[in-house]
Design brief:
Helices cover 34% and strands 26% of the residues. The two termini are 13 Å apart. It has helices at 2-11, 57-66, 81-92, 140-151, 177-185, 212-221, 229-239, 282-295, 300-314, 325-333; strands at residues 16-21, 23-32, 35-36, 43-44, 49-56, 70-78, 98-105, 111-119, 125-132, 164-168, 190-193, 207-208, 247-251, 257-260, 266-269. With 334 residues, it is an alpha/beta fold. Helix 5 links the parallel strand 10 (164-168) and strand 11. The strands form three sheets. A nine-stranded mixed β-sheet has the order 7-6-1-10-11-12-13-14-15, sandwiched between helices. Strands 5-2-8-9 form a four-stranded mixed β-sheet. It has a two-stranded antiparallel sheet with strand order 3-4.
Protein backbone atom coordinates (compact mmCIF):
# COMPACT_ATOMS: atom_id res chain seq x y z
CA UNK A 1 0.00 0.00 0.00
CA UNK A 2 2.82 2.42 0.85
CA UNK A 3 4.28 1.87 -2.62
CA UNK A 4 0.92 2.78 -4.19
CA UNK A 5 0.68 6.02 -2.20
CA UNK A 6 4.28 6.91 -3.04
CA UNK A 7 3.52 6.31 -6.73
CA UNK A 8 0.58 8.69 -6.46
CA UNK A 9 2.74 11.33 -4.78
CA UNK A 10 5.16 11.21 -7.72
CA UNK A 11 2.51 11.07 -10.43
CA UNK A 12 -0.29 13.32 -9.18
CA UNK A 13 0.98 16.72 -10.30
CA UNK A 14 1.35 15.49 -13.89
CA UNK A 15 -2.08 13.86 -14.14
CA UNK A 16 -5.06 15.46 -15.87
CA UNK A 17 -8.52 14.04 -15.24
CA UNK A 18 -11.88 15.18 -16.61
CA UNK A 19 -15.07 14.70 -14.58
CA UNK A 20 -18.45 14.69 -16.33
CA UNK A 21 -21.49 14.59 -14.11
CA UNK A 22 -24.15 16.05 -11.89
CA UNK A 23 -22.50 18.83 -9.93
CA UNK A 24 -24.14 20.09 -6.75
CA UNK A 25 -23.74 22.67 -4.04
CA UNK A 26 -23.89 21.27 -0.51
CA UNK A 27 -25.19 23.96 1.83
CA UNK A 28 -25.05 23.43 5.59
CA UNK A 29 -26.99 25.58 8.04
CA UNK A 30 -26.30 24.97 11.72
CA UNK A 31 -27.31 26.34 15.07
CA UNK A 32 -28.75 25.64 18.48
CA UNK A 33 -32.21 24.10 18.85
CA UNK A 34 -33.48 25.80 22.02
CA UNK A 35 -37.23 25.18 21.90
CA UNK A 36 -40.34 23.80 20.24
CA UNK A 37 -42.30 26.13 17.99
CA UNK A 38 -45.61 27.45 19.43
CA UNK A 39 -47.07 27.25 15.90
CA UNK A 40 -46.65 23.49 15.44
CA UNK A 41 -44.90 20.57 17.22
CA UNK A 42 -41.59 21.17 15.44
CA UNK A 43 -38.14 22.23 16.60
CA UNK A 44 -36.90 25.79 16.19
CA UNK A 45 -33.30 26.05 14.97
CA UNK A 46 -31.33 29.28 15.27
CA UNK A 47 -29.46 29.84 11.99
CA UNK A 48 -26.01 30.64 13.39
CA UNK A 49 -23.63 29.41 10.69
CA UNK A 50 -23.66 28.70 6.94
CA UNK A 51 -21.04 26.70 5.08
CA UNK A 52 -20.97 25.55 1.46
CA UNK A 53 -19.06 22.68 -0.09
CA UNK A 54 -18.93 21.06 -3.54
CA UNK A 55 -21.28 18.09 -3.74
CA UNK A 56 -22.10 15.25 -6.14
CA UNK A 57 -19.74 15.20 -9.12
CA UNK A 58 -18.19 18.43 -7.80
CA UNK A 59 -17.16 16.55 -4.65
CA UNK A 60 -15.39 13.99 -6.85
CA UNK A 61 -13.55 16.90 -8.47
CA UNK A 62 -12.57 18.25 -5.05
CA UNK A 63 -11.32 14.79 -4.09
CA UNK A 64 -9.16 14.50 -7.21
CA UNK A 65 -7.72 18.00 -6.73
CA UNK A 66 -7.01 17.23 -3.05
CA UNK A 67 -4.63 14.53 -4.32
CA UNK A 68 -2.72 17.17 -6.33
CA UNK A 69 -4.12 16.44 -9.83
CA UNK A 70 -5.42 18.88 -12.41
CA UNK A 71 -9.15 18.37 -12.97
CA UNK A 72 -11.63 19.75 -15.49
CA UNK A 73 -15.32 19.43 -14.65
CA UNK A 74 -18.17 19.37 -17.18
CA UNK A 75 -21.64 19.72 -15.73
CA UNK A 76 -25.12 21.15 -16.08
CA UNK A 77 -26.20 24.01 -13.79
CA UNK A 78 -28.90 26.66 -13.58
CA UNK A 79 -28.44 30.30 -14.45
CA UNK A 80 -28.41 31.29 -10.79
CA UNK A 81 -26.29 32.39 -7.85
CA UNK A 82 -25.76 28.80 -6.69
CA UNK A 83 -23.96 27.99 -9.97
CA UNK A 84 -21.71 31.01 -9.56
CA UNK A 85 -20.99 30.12 -5.94
CA UNK A 86 -20.12 26.53 -6.86
CA UNK A 87 -17.79 27.60 -9.69
CA UNK A 88 -16.04 30.09 -7.43
CA UNK A 89 -15.74 27.47 -4.70
CA UNK A 90 -14.06 24.99 -7.05
CA UNK A 91 -11.72 27.42 -8.80
CA UNK A 92 -10.62 29.76 -6.01
CA UNK A 93 -9.99 27.11 -3.36
CA UNK A 94 -7.99 24.69 -5.49
CA UNK A 95 -4.77 26.49 -6.35
CA UNK A 96 -5.46 26.69 -10.06
CA UNK A 97 -5.85 22.92 -10.38
CA UNK A 98 -9.54 23.04 -11.29
CA UNK A 99 -11.17 24.24 -14.51
CA UNK A 100 -14.97 24.48 -14.77
CA UNK A 101 -16.85 23.93 -18.02
CA UNK A 102 -20.36 24.47 -16.69
CA UNK A 103 -23.31 24.71 -19.04
CA UNK A 104 -25.97 27.09 -17.74
CA UNK A 105 -29.59 26.21 -18.43
CA UNK A 106 -32.22 28.82 -17.56
CA UNK A 107 -34.96 26.17 -17.41
CA UNK A 108 -33.53 24.43 -14.34
CA UNK A 109 -32.01 25.24 -10.94
CA UNK A 110 -28.52 24.32 -9.90
CA UNK A 111 -28.81 21.25 -7.68
CA UNK A 112 -28.50 22.37 -4.05
CA UNK A 113 -28.75 20.10 -1.03
CA UNK A 114 -29.39 22.12 2.12
CA UNK A 115 -28.79 20.27 5.37
CA UNK A 116 -29.93 21.64 8.72
CA UNK A 117 -27.74 20.71 11.67
CA UNK A 118 -28.73 21.04 15.31
CA UNK A 119 -25.95 21.91 17.76
CA UNK A 120 -25.62 22.41 21.49
CA UNK A 121 -26.27 18.86 22.68
CA UNK A 122 -23.10 16.89 21.98
CA UNK A 123 -22.12 16.26 18.36
CA UNK A 124 -24.04 18.12 15.62
CA UNK A 125 -26.98 16.09 14.35
CA UNK A 126 -28.79 16.46 11.05
CA UNK A 127 -32.38 17.56 11.50
CA UNK A 128 -33.53 17.34 7.88
CA UNK A 129 -32.52 18.12 4.30
CA UNK A 130 -34.09 20.24 1.57
CA UNK A 131 -33.19 19.57 -2.11
CA UNK A 132 -33.53 22.00 -5.01
CA UNK A 133 -33.06 20.08 -8.26
CA UNK A 134 -34.28 18.99 -11.67
CA UNK A 135 -33.74 15.50 -13.07
CA UNK A 136 -34.76 16.26 -16.65
CA UNK A 137 -32.19 15.47 -19.33
CA UNK A 138 -30.43 18.40 -21.00
CA UNK A 139 -32.21 19.59 -24.13
CA UNK A 140 -31.53 21.93 -27.05
CA UNK A 141 -28.66 24.40 -26.70
CA UNK A 142 -27.68 23.08 -23.27
CA UNK A 143 -27.35 19.54 -24.63
CA UNK A 144 -25.31 20.78 -27.59
CA UNK A 145 -22.95 22.72 -25.33
CA UNK A 146 -22.46 19.71 -23.05
CA UNK A 147 -21.66 17.52 -26.03
CA UNK A 148 -19.20 20.09 -27.44
CA UNK A 149 -17.40 20.27 -24.09
CA UNK A 150 -17.02 16.49 -23.93
CA UNK A 151 -15.86 16.27 -27.56
CA UNK A 152 -13.19 18.89 -26.85
CA UNK A 153 -11.34 16.47 -24.53
CA UNK A 154 -8.16 15.03 -26.00
CA UNK A 155 -6.24 11.88 -25.16
CA UNK A 156 -2.61 11.91 -24.06
CA UNK A 157 -0.03 12.64 -25.41
CA UNK A 158 -1.90 15.56 -27.01
CA UNK A 159 -1.11 18.93 -25.50
CA UNK A 160 -3.20 19.30 -22.36
CA UNK A 161 -4.59 15.81 -22.96
CA UNK A 162 -6.35 13.77 -20.27
CA UNK A 163 -5.37 10.53 -18.57
CA UNK A 164 -8.92 9.53 -17.57
CA UNK A 165 -12.55 10.59 -17.80
CA UNK A 166 -14.74 10.08 -14.75
CA UNK A 167 -18.52 10.00 -15.13
CA UNK A 168 -20.23 10.77 -11.83
CA UNK A 169 -23.91 10.06 -12.44
CA UNK A 170 -26.59 11.13 -9.97
CA UNK A 171 -29.42 10.95 -12.56
CA UNK A 172 -29.94 14.74 -12.56
CA UNK A 173 -29.83 15.19 -16.33
CA UNK A 174 -26.17 15.66 -17.26
CA UNK A 175 -25.42 12.05 -18.23
CA UNK A 176 -27.13 10.62 -21.31
CA UNK A 177 -26.40 7.97 -23.92
CA UNK A 178 -25.10 10.70 -26.25
CA UNK A 179 -22.70 12.04 -23.61
CA UNK A 180 -21.40 8.56 -22.75
CA UNK A 181 -20.79 7.72 -26.41
CA UNK A 182 -18.99 11.04 -26.87
CA UNK A 183 -16.75 10.31 -23.88
CA UNK A 184 -15.90 6.85 -25.25
CA UNK A 185 -15.16 8.29 -28.70
CA UNK A 186 -12.26 10.33 -27.26
CA UNK A 187 -10.27 7.12 -26.68
CA UNK A 188 -9.63 8.15 -23.06
CA UNK A 189 -10.30 5.57 -20.32
CA UNK A 190 -13.81 6.11 -18.93
CA UNK A 191 -14.55 5.29 -15.28
CA UNK A 192 -18.20 5.45 -14.21
CA UNK A 193 -20.11 5.67 -10.95
CA UNK A 194 -23.58 4.76 -12.28
CA UNK A 195 -27.11 5.34 -11.10
CA UNK A 196 -29.33 2.28 -11.68
CA UNK A 197 -31.81 4.21 -13.86
CA UNK A 198 -28.98 4.84 -16.34
CA UNK A 199 -27.21 1.51 -15.93
CA UNK A 200 -27.68 0.35 -19.52
CA UNK A 201 -26.00 3.50 -20.86
CA UNK A 202 -22.52 2.42 -19.78
CA UNK A 203 -21.82 -0.44 -22.14
CA UNK A 204 -18.21 -0.24 -23.30
CA UNK A 205 -16.73 1.83 -20.48
CA UNK A 206 -13.49 0.74 -18.85
CA UNK A 207 -14.37 0.63 -15.14
CA UNK A 208 -17.76 0.65 -13.38
CA UNK A 209 -17.91 1.66 -9.69
CA UNK A 210 -21.36 1.11 -8.11
CA UNK A 211 -22.21 0.50 -4.47
CA UNK A 212 -23.80 -2.83 -3.55
CA UNK A 213 -27.40 -1.60 -3.91
CA UNK A 214 -26.71 0.02 -7.28
CA UNK A 215 -24.86 -3.07 -8.51
CA UNK A 216 -27.67 -5.41 -7.44
CA UNK A 217 -30.34 -3.22 -9.06
CA UNK A 218 -28.51 -2.89 -12.38
CA UNK A 219 -27.58 -6.60 -12.50
CA UNK A 220 -31.22 -7.52 -11.88
CA UNK A 221 -32.08 -5.71 -15.12
CA UNK A 222 -29.76 -8.16 -16.87
CA UNK A 223 -31.28 -11.23 -15.23
CA UNK A 224 -29.14 -11.70 -12.13
CA UNK A 225 -30.99 -13.38 -9.26
CA UNK A 226 -30.09 -13.10 -5.59
CA UNK A 227 -27.53 -11.02 -3.74
CA UNK A 228 -24.30 -12.95 -4.32
CA UNK A 229 -21.86 -10.14 -5.13
CA UNK A 230 -19.48 -12.33 -7.13
CA UNK A 231 -22.33 -13.31 -9.45
CA UNK A 232 -23.59 -9.72 -9.62
CA UNK A 233 -20.12 -8.46 -10.57
CA UNK A 234 -19.78 -11.07 -13.30
CA UNK A 235 -23.26 -10.25 -14.64
CA UNK A 236 -22.35 -6.57 -14.87
CA UNK A 237 -19.06 -7.36 -16.57
CA UNK A 238 -20.54 -9.53 -19.32
CA UNK A 239 -23.71 -7.44 -19.79
CA UNK A 240 -21.86 -4.12 -20.14
CA UNK A 241 -19.04 -5.46 -22.32
CA UNK A 242 -18.15 -3.39 -25.38
CA UNK A 243 -14.88 -3.90 -27.24
CA UNK A 244 -13.39 -5.20 -23.99
CA UNK A 245 -14.48 -6.56 -20.61
CA UNK A 246 -14.97 -3.70 -18.15
CA UNK A 247 -13.48 -3.95 -14.69
CA UNK A 248 -16.01 -3.87 -11.85
CA UNK A 249 -15.41 -2.26 -8.45
CA UNK A 250 -18.26 -2.59 -5.95
CA UNK A 251 -18.20 -0.77 -2.62
CA UNK A 252 -19.73 -2.93 0.10
CA UNK A 253 -20.03 -0.50 3.02
CA UNK A 254 -18.88 -2.12 6.24
CA UNK A 255 -17.91 -5.22 4.22
CA UNK A 256 -15.19 -3.34 2.31
CA UNK A 257 -14.72 -3.45 -1.46
CA UNK A 258 -14.85 -6.04 -4.26
CA UNK A 259 -12.99 -5.92 -7.57
CA UNK A 260 -13.43 -7.99 -10.71
CA UNK A 261 -10.67 -7.25 -13.18
CA UNK A 262 -10.62 -7.61 -16.96
CA UNK A 263 -9.01 -11.04 -16.57
CA UNK A 264 -11.98 -12.34 -14.57
CA UNK A 265 -10.21 -12.36 -11.20
CA UNK A 266 -12.24 -11.39 -8.12
CA UNK A 267 -10.61 -9.89 -5.05
CA UNK A 268 -12.23 -8.73 -1.80
CA UNK A 269 -10.75 -6.34 0.73
CA UNK A 270 -12.26 -5.71 4.18
CA UNK A 271 -13.08 -2.20 5.33
CA UNK A 272 -10.32 -0.32 7.14
CA UNK A 273 -12.69 2.09 8.93
CA UNK A 274 -12.40 1.80 12.72
CA UNK A 275 -14.61 4.80 13.51
CA UNK A 276 -17.58 5.96 11.46
CA UNK A 277 -19.01 9.44 12.05
CA UNK A 278 -20.58 10.22 8.66
CA UNK A 279 -20.66 8.19 5.43
CA UNK A 280 -21.82 11.18 3.33
CA UNK A 281 -19.56 11.44 0.27
CA UNK A 282 -17.62 8.23 0.97
CA UNK A 283 -18.50 6.91 -2.49
CA UNK A 284 -17.18 10.12 -4.05
CA UNK A 285 -13.91 9.62 -2.17
CA UNK A 286 -13.60 6.06 -3.49
CA UNK A 287 -14.25 7.26 -7.04
CA UNK A 288 -11.73 10.11 -6.77
CA UNK A 289 -8.89 7.97 -5.42
CA UNK A 290 -9.62 4.95 -7.61
CA UNK A 291 -9.75 7.10 -10.76
CA UNK A 292 -6.53 8.91 -9.90
CA UNK A 293 -4.76 5.59 -9.35
CA UNK A 294 -6.04 4.23 -12.67
CA UNK A 295 -4.95 7.43 -14.44
CA UNK A 296 -1.49 6.89 -12.93
CA UNK A 297 -1.33 3.33 -14.33
CA UNK A 298 -1.67 1.60 -10.96
CA UNK A 299 -3.15 -1.95 -11.17
CA UNK A 300 -6.85 -2.25 -10.27
CA UNK A 301 -6.35 -4.32 -7.11
CA UNK A 302 -3.89 -1.78 -5.68
CA UNK A 303 -6.06 1.13 -6.81
CA UNK A 304 -9.07 -0.35 -5.02
CA UNK A 305 -6.99 -0.91 -1.90
CA UNK A 306 -5.96 2.76 -1.84
CA UNK A 307 -9.57 3.87 -2.45
CA UNK A 308 -10.79 1.59 0.34
CA UNK A 309 -8.27 3.10 2.75
CA UNK A 310 -9.25 6.64 1.74
CA UNK A 311 -12.92 5.85 2.40
CA UNK A 312 -11.94 4.70 5.89
CA UNK A 313 -10.35 8.10 6.50
CA UNK A 314 -13.29 10.03 5.05
CA UNK A 315 -15.99 8.43 7.24
CA UNK A 316 -14.22 9.83 10.31
CA UNK A 317 -15.11 13.31 9.02
CA UNK A 318 -18.48 15.04 9.17
CA UNK A 319 -20.25 15.92 5.91
CA UNK A 320 -18.72 15.86 2.43
CA UNK A 321 -14.94 16.00 2.79
CA UNK A 322 -11.79 15.21 0.86
CA UNK A 323 -8.79 13.03 1.70
CA UNK A 324 -5.20 14.06 0.98
CA UNK A 325 -2.12 11.98 0.21
CA UNK A 326 -0.58 13.17 3.49
CA UNK A 327 -3.59 11.79 5.37
CA UNK A 328 -3.23 8.49 3.54
CA UNK A 329 0.46 8.32 4.46
CA UNK A 330 -0.33 9.16 8.08
CA UNK A 331 -2.96 6.43 8.14
CA UNK A 332 -0.41 3.88 6.97
CA UNK A 333 2.00 4.96 9.71
CA UNK A 334 -0.75 4.54 12.31
Amino acid sequence: MLATVELLVKAASNLRIAVIGDVMLDENLSGAVPRISPEAPVMVMLNEKRTVLPGGAANVVAGIVALGCHCTVIGLVGDDSAADELAELLVKTNNGLCQTMFVKDKTRPTTVKTRFWGTGHGSPHQLFRVDSESSKEAQGIARDHLLANVMSLRKRPAAEGYDAIVVSDYAKGTVSETIVKAALSTGIKVIVAPKPSNGRLFKGVHVIVPNSIEATTIAKEFGAVGTDMDNIARTLQTSLMGDHLPSIVITLGKEGILTLDENGLIHRQPTVAKEVFDVTGAGDTVLAVLSTCIAAGIPLKDAASAANMAAGIKVKKMGVATVTLDEMKDSLRD
